Amino acid sequence: MREIGFDSEKYLTEQSQYILERVNQYDKLYLEFGGKLVDDKHAKRVLPGFQEDAKVKLLQKLKDQAEILICLYAGDIERNKIRGDYGITYDMDILRLIDELRGYGLLVNSVVITRYNNQPATEVFINKLERRNIKVYKHEAIENYPLNVEKIVSNEGFGKNEYIKTEKPIVIVTAPGPGSGKLATCLNQLYHESKKGHAAGYSKFETFPVWNVPLKHPLNIAYEAATVDLGDVNMIDSFHLDYYGEMAVNYNRDIETFPVIKRIIEKITNQESIYKSPTDMGVNRIEAGIINDEVIQEAARQEIIRRYFQTECDFKKGLVNEEAVNRISLIMEEVGLKPEDRKVVAPAHAYAEKFESLTKDPAAVIALELPSKEIITGRATPLMEAPASVILNAVKALAKIDDDIHLLSPITLETIQKLKKNEMHMKDHSLDVSEVLIALAISAVTNPTAQRAYEKLVELEDAQAHSTVILSKNNEQVLRKLGIDITSTAAYPSEQLYHQ
Questions:
Q1: Distances (CA, A) of 48 to 217, 231, 233
Q2: From which residue to which does the signal peptide run (predicted)?
């Protein structure tokens, strides 16, 4: 059983109350939501006990008073920017997010395309949304934003962008990733609300960094590790310290832009801002849910190691630059961590060494830690890939099935292989994890032993695993859907350039 360090219910109660207190100061509050609105797996990993859909549950508490705007930067559509956790483009993630939010009974007002400039792929996406009866607004880029305050707060700035009609007192502004234009959309709305004589306000809801835990707490350092590609650095909020004499943690981008954002808000409202620091703008109450700091610290340290492996792999794939690799290495040194401090790393490589002498390519091996702390390994064979092997070995161990008992008929597996090789003309016809899971599900209908193993898949939730090679996108996604936290060493399984 995983140790719990966070009380989600206590957090949700305090967080919703605090947001409502902030709303009471205005006719309407534009609340910028940073991070993932749904499936916040980073928060779940570093705050054991945090529910990955906690933010959506928070919105459900407020749903009678809230509606949602979703922002998307046109440039991210044009370059097919990918969400690493889902393996889908940002525009497709908008469709997924709308479906998810509607499934929770939440009102999605519209999609806002930011920095719009008649981009061709963006036009196609707008057509797709509008033909499914989703309202779309287009906001153009404003020259020298956010520095040219006089132009920004004028008819030539926010004034030329559309006003988004909303009805609820809380407007949640979210996006699939950073740089999507959430803040600009909020400020644009404040400008138009002010023109209409409405008392509207702005606040920001960021889960990390946590402003009221120490700067060098592993929880905050884990946030830096998660954003090495963005170059975010946690800092003491000097504005907060100067005004209140109180330490508060924020990150460099918010601290650097605070003076100009404060000026923009003051020019829009024609009155002094109530905010004396970027921390004031936030409504984060994460610290209220922490019930075991030692558990949180260890979970955060493990997340830093996971981010180290992810950054190394992303560099190998060409997704991040060398500066990101250097930064994550420095973070590892700062916290005093080594890759081997992740328990499944050494067993995976130790098992791989037994086979690497037989081939010029790295041996593909996965080590997985069961809830009992037992380490299970699986390796790639001509029949199936390493993720498939380790899953079968893991459910056998959980169901206490002897290793020499076949869960799946060899004839069935060979038939699937022949289909891939002869009819589908696939060069690599080893079975991947999704194919083996489907075979296991089918076998469970008639084979009681397979049924016992199949029922143990649910116990792999939160299991830790490490692969000695970079996994295919499909294998990685399936393992994550099973709830397995998988990392990989930055090595390809072969010299083939088109492999996977």
A1: 16, 26, 24
A2: none
Buried b / exposed e over 263-289, threshold 16 CB at 10 Å, is bbbebbbeeebebbbbbbbbbbbbebb
Asked if residue 498 has pLDDT above 70, the reply is: no
Helix (H, G, I), strand (E, B) or coil at 108: strand
- Rounded Cα distance between 311 and 321, Å, is 9
Round to whole Å and give the CA distance between 466 and 121: 38
CA dihedral for 207, 211, 215, 217, sign (positive or negative)? negative
SS3 112: strand
Residue 354 has what DSSP assignment?
Answer: H
Write the pLDDT tens digit of every residue in 166-201: 999 999 999 988 889 999 999 999 999 999 999 899
**In contact, 387 and 433? CB cutoff 8 Å:** yes
Structure tokens at 93: 């993630």
Domain at 343-488: CATH code: 3.40.140.40
Q: Please give the model's pTM, rounded to 2 decimal places.
A: 0.90
| Tokens found for residue 124 | 């196609």
Return the closest-CA partner of residue 438 out of 407, 459, 466, 461. 407
Which H helix or E strand runs over 236?
strand 234-236
pLDDT in tens, 441-463: 999 999 999 999 999 999 999 99
Please tell me the number of Cα atoms within 13 Å of 486 on its side-chain side: 30
Domain ranges of the chain: 8-290, 343-488
Using CA atoms, how far residue 482 sits from 215, 372, 435, 459, in Å, is 34, 18, 14, 9
Q: Does this chain's domain 8-290 share its CATH topology with 343-488? A: no
Nearest to 15 by CA among 206, 145, 147: 206
Tokens of 330: 């420095």
* CATH of the domain spanning 8-290: 3.10.630.10
